Amino acid sequence: MEYIWQSEDFPTFVFNKSEIVPMIQQFAHDLGEISGIIMGFSEENKQDLFAEIMLSEALKTSEIEGEYFSREDVMSSLKANLGIKDYHQNNRNKKANAIAHLMIEVQNSYHKPISEKILLDWYHILMENEKGINAGQFRTGIEPMQVVSGKFGDFVIHYEAPPSEDLPLMIPQFLKWYNDFEMNDIGKIGEGVVLSALAHLYFETLHPFEDGNGRIGRALAEKALSEKLETPVFISISKSIEKDKNRYYEELKLAQRNLEVNSWMLYFCSILQDALLDSKNQALFTLKKTLFFDQFKNQLNERELKAIQKMTEMGENSFFGGMNAKKYMSINKISKATATRDLQHLSEIGVFLKSGGGRSISYQLNL
Ligand SMILES: Nc1ncnc2c1ncn2[C@@H]1O[C@H](COP(=O)(O)OP(=O)(O)OP(=O)(O)O)[C@@H](O)[C@H]1O
Predict the structure, then answer these.
(1) Per its UniProt record, what InterPro entries does this chain match (predicted)?
(2) Is there an atom of ligand 1 within 6 Å of 204 CB?
């Protein structure tokens, strides 16, 4: 046997539960903490946070594939699709629209059993604008479906998926395995974590589509977790994977060769944990931001408010180099004198902390 799908025992994945139980406990603990933080949020803040996390997933799952979209394009699609007021889809980047639409569809279908229709719908959403791809069906080609790297003429084959002709049997088996999945002795959260990890691996093993298997498979991992927890879990798995893509490929490669998948389980649990921590930090930042705006909003003029919103809209520490007079003038399209006056005021009331001197003065938010 070269690959796991060729084994008689496939898909009986074997792993040591006791090794991942502490990770599941930590995950459950952090999940509880986040729920506590979010509980106090206004509906608007909740929606903003969830949109932020979906945005992150949409951007990073595309980046893993080497596709880079602008934050603004994807966010405008997400907000329009979520029906957030004042947002209309004005984004002509069809691929960015597609990935945003997929993210929302995945959250909307978290409670439904997985089916061929759901997978094909997701695929259709993702691929309908791709030329040369039949967006409504699983792969049927006779050429082998291989994961390769390297240059033309010097390819390394990392993996070969089952032939297309086997899929009509293997896909229903996968769907049944997924929908019947149970692991009662590690609690609902544990069950969700394990299903998420194994469903992703199983799906990548089948590689059932011509293209987009990574993106659909990561979407499926998110759905599996939400489904078992019976509520949408807002985490960005792809953001965590993307931090070390090579490790992801290595772990998949290793897991394709042996049904004993301890290393994969440990790896994937660490990805979920990292993604959850990231969501927690984002939630804490939203909280800090709200308290900050509440404290200062009555002392700020429109220009000051606009500049502060700009500095916080992309998350903590994302406004590189802090604020300075030049940036402030350009954000508000105003004269240097007005900018200097506002910056002075913001420092005096304690919104900004000033650093540097002369031409290199910059201002950080005193969050
Ligand atoms: N050795 C491997 N075995 C099985 N699957 C693998 C292996 N290495 C990578 N993969 C999966 O295959 C995906 C690539 O497949 P495909 O090109 O169809 O998907 P994609 O969504 O278009 O690309 P990407 O995953 O890069 O976004 C990877 O993202 C990963 O999920």
Answers:
(1) DUF4172 (IPR025230), Fido (IPR003812), Fido-like_dom_sf (IPR036597), Fido_containing (IPR040198), WH-like_DNA-bd_sf (IPR036388)
(2) yes
DSSP string, 322-364: -B-HHHHHHHHT--HHHHHHHHHHHHHTTSEEEES-GGG-EEE
Ligand 1 contact, 215 CB (< 6 A): yes
Q: Among positive and negative, which fits the CA dihedral 109, 114, 116, 119?
A: positive
**What ipTM was estimated for this complex?**
0.90
Each residue of 347-361: pLDDT tens digit?
999 999 988 887 788
**What pTM value is reported for the model?**
0.90
Query: Which of 143-147, 148-152, 221-225 comes out lowest in average pLDDT?
Result: 148-152
Q: In degrees, to the nearest 5, what angle opens at C-alpha 329 toward C-alphas 325 and 334?
A: 135
1.20.140.10, 1.10.15.40, 1.10.10.10, 3.65.10.10: which CATH number matches 300-365? 1.10.10.10
Q: Is 65 in the pocket of ligand 1 (CB under 6 A)?
A: yes
CB-ligand 1 contact for 316 (6 Å cutoff): no
Average pLDDT, whole number, for the chain?
92
Please tell me the predicted confidence (pLDDT) of residue 85. 56
Determine if ligand 1 sits within 6 Å of the CB of residue 147.
yes
Q: Is the CB of 162 under 6 A from ligand 1?
A: no
Cβ–ligand 1 distance for 247 under 6 Å, the answer: no
Sign of CA dihedral 177, 179, 182, 186: positive
For the domain spanning 4-286, the CATH number is 1.10.3290.10
Q: What is the pLDDT of residues 202-241, one digit of tens each?
A: 999 999 999 999 999 999 999 999 999 999 999 999 999 9
Domain borders along the chain are 4-286, 300-365
Spell out a b/e string for 118-144, using b for 16 or more CB atoms within 10 Å of the CB, else e. bbbebbbbbbeeeeebebeebbeeeee
Atom of ligand 1 lying closest to residue 217 CA: 31
Distance 11 CA to ligand 1 centre (A): 19
Which residue CA neighbors atom 8 of ligand 1 most closely?
Answer: 249
- The pLDDT tens digits for 293-343 are 889 989 999 999 999 988 887 777 667 788 999 999 999 999 999 999 999
Atom of ligand 1 nearest to the CA of 253: 1
Atom of ligand 1 nearest to the CA of 204: 5
Nearest C-alpha to atom 22 of ligand 1 is from which residue?
212
